[in-house]
Amino acid sequence: MIRWRTASTTLYPTIRRFLCTFRCISTLSLPIQETPQTHLFQCNTRIRELGRLGRVDEARRVFDEMIQRDAVSWNMMINGYSQTGRVDEARLLFDAFVGKNVRTWTILLTGYAKEGRIDEARQVFESMPERNVVSWNAMISGHVQNGDLGNARKLFDEMPEKNVASWNSVVTGYCHCYRMSEAHELFDQMPERTSVSWMVMISGYVHISDYWEAWKLFVKMCRTMVRPDQSILVVVLSAITGLDDLELIRSLRPIAIKTGYEGDVVVGSAILNAYARNGSLDLAMSFFETMPERNEYSWTTMIAAFAQCGRLDDAIRLYDQVPEQTVASKTAMMTAYAQAGRIQEARHIFDEILNPNTVAWNAMVAGYTQNGMLKEAKDLFEKMPVKNSASWAAMIAGLVQNELSREALEILIELHRSGAVPSDSSFTSSLAACANIGDVEIGRVIHSLAIKAGCQFNSYVMNGLISMYAKCGNMEDGSHVFRTIRTKDTVSWNSLISGLSENYMLDDARLIFEKMPKRDVVSWTAIISAYVQAGHGEIGLDLFLGMLARGIKPNQLTVTSLLSTCGNLGAIKLGEQLHALVFKLGLDTYLFVGNALITMYFKCGYEDGFSVFDEMPEHDLITWNAVLVGCAQNGLGKEAIRMFEQMEAKGILPDQTSFLGVLCACSHAGLVNEGWEHFNSMTKKYAISPLVYHYTCMVDLLGRAGYLSEAEALIKNMPVNPDSVIWEALLGACRIHRNVALGQRVAERLFQTTKPNSGTYVLLSNLYASQGMWDKVGEIRQLMKDQGLTKKPGISWIQVKNKMHCFVTSDRTHNQIEEICSALKEFHGCFRATGYMPDTNCVLHDVEEEQKQNELLYHSEKLAVVFGILSTPNGSPIQVIKNLRICSDCHTFMKFMSNVTLRKIIIRDGNRFHHFRDGSCSCGDYW
């Protein structure tokens, strides 16, 4: 024991050191002997990673150096080649692999399909010793990707077993080819659906702009308890944006909150974009400020929204707050400056971008074209290091927008020669170019190219084709294109309606409109505009009321077209109602709506056009011209000169229309000196060459003022060829001042140089009649009879309670004619007692005085005014439109009528407005 204890005591430290050393060694990682299986796994993993990165050659070196390979190794390497477009090398490896399995075959056929080599893909599929559902799906997807839906559907129907991916693939194919009815039919047959199925269908409807159907499908999805994911919410917000319905945004937000996506930056940015596109900038900004996270798209969306609404200062302020300026935010600000015409600031930002991407280059090119700086746009386009399809599309569209359609087509040819395939946008703009120059043959060539490029199912291209053929006057081909569209969207129907209308096929346009399965505001606007432009304003107004009754909210184009109708018809009451509707719908911010309101009021003889002008936040040249022309129509010469001077003071350069307005106003007001001053300033101050229309205004001005010899000299010495209108203006002045000698010379000139019309004969006849030269009057009448010409009857229109009433001189067809004639005789007797004397010089017949007075009594404007007095409340204004110049007797009669009835009477004759009030006329008896 003692020895043992001694020995153990002696040995204990040694044993303890040994145990400690062993423990330390045991905690160290021991080298693992590499087995063939371990090496195989590592190599396969490395091949997969390199393949995903596109580094296929490196993957192949790993593959070649492998000691042992399995099916996974071969499949990974074949897949790497296939996914990077090197399908021939994939085939060599495939052929060398003796242990092919179903995945190997599927990988190769997928590679062929991806490269568009669908026949070779199909050969692989047919040669497969066995197939599974993945193989079938791959082949179906291949056909779908290559636009071969017929074979895709045939394979789908032959599948022994289908899964949800099979159904989704074919539905996706139908959606991509815009065949939404077939897509929906198949979708309804699906035994089960995933969120992808719903996403594909909703996106399909959004892609063809059928936003309402997309929204209804989303609502149906929610009712089936399918939880929307991020991508579905984003695409549904695109649909809501297209519907332009603020309430739908509000109804979607609780769903986004419930699913936890409103705080998601992608969904949040989509909500923001929907608010901005809806024009609800305040709501958009409020939402933007509460977003928990913002990305560059959020910032650029708000910047773009402010810019598009003309709030450039707000866009700049927001841009300065961007935490980190990126190429995207700089591009957005650059675009905002360009849209506002501040192209130098836009270029400054572009130059600040160190490495501009293609989007930035495209934005700068588009900015130049938007501002008409085509040389700069072309120079920048040529300098682009890389051009994508959007680059070419921007250049082509810019040239078309600047009316350089032939140059645009040359760019398309250059794009085609480069071997690149034009985008849908390039095709659409090029078709617009063909329409602009009326070249249907080039249009047909582009039609063929579009088919070869697989765009025959693209709604934008097909609708562009309809418009192109229509504008080239070839509605047969346009209608054929329409019939070949498998799934016609609303735009297709609208394009056909517009095309038929432009070719004066109004009945056909109405028939197509009635056949439409669904009409939107554009459809209604198209058919309303068609009737308005064809001179059937009353039908256009009836259609508008029908549109409102169906709950369709008019847009800015609808109200602009109808305001034009109201102006042409003199329908001031309806015009005022439309003005109120404009405010209610928030359309008063649109510049061209304000311009249309100004024109409408002045055309109706109301000076409210000045009030609209004063209330507008901005004015363009068209705005100023609308006021100048309005002043001319209403004989407001001094006001026209004042507005012209204001326009010059604002730095707005006048154009030919501006001078036409101010010269016409001077003519109607007898402002000879002022007229000469402005006429001379055209060339001396603004380097604008006067056209024959400007010379006509000056001849009219001089002639009315009695300067007949000066007017004749101006015609003889002017550098442009005189037309019949300018000679008729001088002949009219001869009638006013009863200068028979000059009148005969002018009439002979007209007869020699132009085809005689009834107006020339009537003017000459009036001149002879005013001098009592009845033999000459008889000769003129006989000449007119020999040539089959008749004098236009005097026709007057008045609107009462939204109904237009028409009166013809001496006509007795109106259902209240007896009451009207009785009241007219009573007024006539009253006026005679207070000093009115009928001006029988206006009667162009050699008859007794009493007969002349009786003939004067039943002129159309007298009948219309008396009807208005009988049919409207006391004191309300009367407004009448007449097709011919008001005669001097009716002019005097209306002054008495306005004084006795205490009414304002507005008569718009063939030349101008006459505002009668308290016994006097706004023209100062100068007309």
Which tags fit this structure?
elongated, 927 residues, disordered N terminus, 51 helices, mainly alpha
Broad structural category: mainly alpha
Question: Low-confidence segments, ≥5 residues, pLDDT <50?
Answer: 1-34
Overall residue-averaged pLDDT value? 85
What percent of the residues sit in helical stretches (DSSP H or I)?
A: 55-70%
Assembly form of the protein: single chain
Q: How are the SSEs ordered, and which strands pair?
A:
Elements: H1 2-27, H2 36-52, H3 56-65, H4 71-83, H5 87-96, H6 102-114, H7 118-127, H8 133-145, H9 149-158, H10 164-176, H11 180-189, H12 195-207, H13 211-223, H14 230-243, H15 246-258, H16 265-277, H17 281-290, H18 296-308, H19 312-321, H20 327-339, H21 343-352, H22 358-370, H23 374-383, H24 389-401, H25 405-417, H26 424-437, H27 440-452, H28 459-471, H29 475-484, H30 490-502, H31 506-515, H32 521-533, H33 537-549, H34 556-569, H35 572-584, H36 591-603, H37 608-615, H38 621-633, H39 637-649, H40 656-669, H41 672-684, H42 692-704, H43 708-717, H44 724-737, H45 740-753, H46 758-770, H47 774-786, E1 795-800, E2 803-808, H48 817-833, H49 849-857, H50 860-871, E3 878-882, H51 888-901, E4 905-908, E5 913-917, E6 920-921
Parallel strand pairs: 3-4
Antiparallel strand pairs: 1-2, 1-3, 4-5, 5-6
